[in-house]
Structures are given as C-alpha cells and as structure tokens.
Design brief:
five-stranded antiparallel sheet; alpha+beta; elongated; 2 helices; 16% strand; 23% helix
Length: 186
Amino acid sequence: MSAPPPPYQNQQPQQPYGYAPPPQMPYGQQPQYGQQQSYAQPPYAQQPYVPQAPSDPRPPQGPGRRSPLHSVLSVAVVLAVFGGGAWYVWKYNTDPNGGKAKAEATRSAQAEENKKYDPKVGDCVRIQDPQGDPLPVIVDCKSAEAQYRMADTLYGPDRSCGSAYDYGIRYSSRRSTDYTLCFKKV
C-alpha cells in the first residue's frame, strides 16, 4: 500500500506575475475572426504559493573551517613573496658588481665624460666639427691637439665675442641662460 503524494505536488503550475494566458476555445470550435476577443483571467482561482521541499534533505552548510595545511600554505606563500622582495632590495643596495653600485659608477663615469666638454677660463681645447655643431674638448695645453685657450664667458642672448678673440661658440636654450664662449689661439 502506498501513501498518497503530498498536496503540493498536485497543484497547477503558477504563471509569472502579470501574465495571463489567452482563453482557450472549447473543443471543436473555431475562433471567430473580426470579433473582439477578451483575454480575461482564467476561470480557476490562483492557488497560494506553497514552497516545495528541497530535493536534497541536508541542511545548508555554513562557511567551513580551513584545514591547518591550507593556513600553513597561505602563510608560506606570503612569506616567500615578501622575503623575495626584501632579498632583491638588499642585493640591489649591497652588491659591489651590480645594482646601486653599478648605477652610481655609470653616473660618475658620465659626469667625468661631460667635464671634458665644459671648459673653464684658462683651459686649452680642441674644437670638434668647427663648421657644423662645434664642441670644445678639453686637452692638455702642451699637447699638439690644443688649438685654443678659453678666454671668457659672456652671458646674455645678444652677446658675441669681439675682435679681441679668435673664435666663439654661442649656446642658447629655453631652460637655461644663453651664453657665449670666447677663445684665443694657443
């Protein structure tokens, strides 16, 4: 002997809110075209909503506890990331053959290189590319390369070396002061 099914399984399916199905014609009748058809509510009364039983009878599970292994792995990953970053910073700052020392050596070498193109009054120079973009290179005054001796620096955009000087180079830029370097033959 079997028990009758629970009452909630014998209900008619409910329609979504705001939806009314079109009326159905009795069996054997054809719709009359050209006549006004009304779409009224179905003749049966809508049943109240009764929640259905879940298919899985287990109660819902809350947030479970993590295993200790999961926590240990999370801590290990975080320590590895921070440890790697700290090692990189330490290595960059303390390695004598790379990192910060290498950058400082490059900067120092570039500063020394630039000094030989920035003559002061009394320095002997050789002019590279005197007809195009002249560049004074500091040389030893006793060497055969020495062409001119730096005699004066004139500041201002309209200043030029007079007849007392043998050669002049004018520098002008938007960011710094305009000036002219004046040279005499050695």
